[in-house]
């Protein structure tokens, strides 16, 4: 791997062609409102598939921790980031499970759910990972087109 990993300012060059999460992106235009509106326009099964794809894309992002060519200056930040990615997985899988059961009433409304994802990603300092994963699912690229 010839990449770099800078934490917390996150500048990752991915493993290619097998994966990685190119986070030199700045899909800054993605916010909870845009994501909520995008998801709200989908049927329940389509929304479940989309959230599942976002979760899958986040797992690809975790590979970048292993791909780092330099030692981490602050291992506690890495641990916090990995815990954050786990928390996003938890939120996404729970919502997907409800949708797969056909439940749309007793779950977070999609606008609230999008805010929760962005708040957790901000707290754990992994917002670029979330934005990159969402952008990848929306456009097929890790960054803006």
**Most strands sheet:** none
CA radius of gyration is 15 Å
Strand content: under 5%
Distance between the termini: 25 Å
| Inertia-based shape | elongated
- Tally the helices: 5
Report helical residue fraction: 55-70%
Number of strands: 0
Average pLDDT, rounded to a whole number, is: 80
Class by SSE composition? mainly alpha
Structural domain tally: 1
Which regions have little confidence, pLDDT < 50, spanning 5+ residues? 1-18, 22-26
What order do the helices and strands follow? HHHHH
Keyphrases for this structure?
145 residues; mainly alpha; 0% strand; disordered N terminus
Describe the structure.
The protein is elongated, with a radius of gyration of 15 Å. The protein has one domain (32-139). 59% of the residues lie in helices and 0% in strands. With 145 residues, the chain is mainly alpha-helical.
Topology:
Elements lengths: L31 H9 L3 H24 L7 H26 L9 H14 L3 H13 L6
Helix pairs in contact: 1-4, 2-3, 2-5, 3-4, 4-5
In short:
With 145 residues, the chain is mostly helical. Helices cover 59% and strands 0% of the residues.
């Amino acid at each position: 791997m010839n990449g770099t990993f800078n934490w917390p300012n996150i500048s990752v060059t991915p493993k290619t062609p097998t994966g990685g999460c190119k986070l030199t992106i700045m899909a800054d235009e993605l916010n909870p409102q845009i994501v909520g509106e995008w998801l709200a326009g989908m049927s329940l099964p389509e929304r479940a598939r989309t959230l599942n794809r976002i979760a899958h894309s986040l797992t690809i992002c975790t590979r970048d921790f292993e791909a780092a060519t330099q030692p981490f200056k602050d291992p506690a930040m890495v641990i916090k980031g990995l815990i954050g990615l786990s928390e996003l997985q938890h939120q996404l899988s729970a919502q997907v499970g409800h949708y797969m059961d056909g439940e749309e009433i007793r779950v977070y409304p999609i606008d609230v759910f999008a805010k929760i994802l962005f708040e957790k990603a901000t707290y754990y300092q992994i917002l670029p990972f979330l934005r990159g994963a969402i952008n990848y699912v929306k456009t097929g690229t890790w960054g803006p087109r």
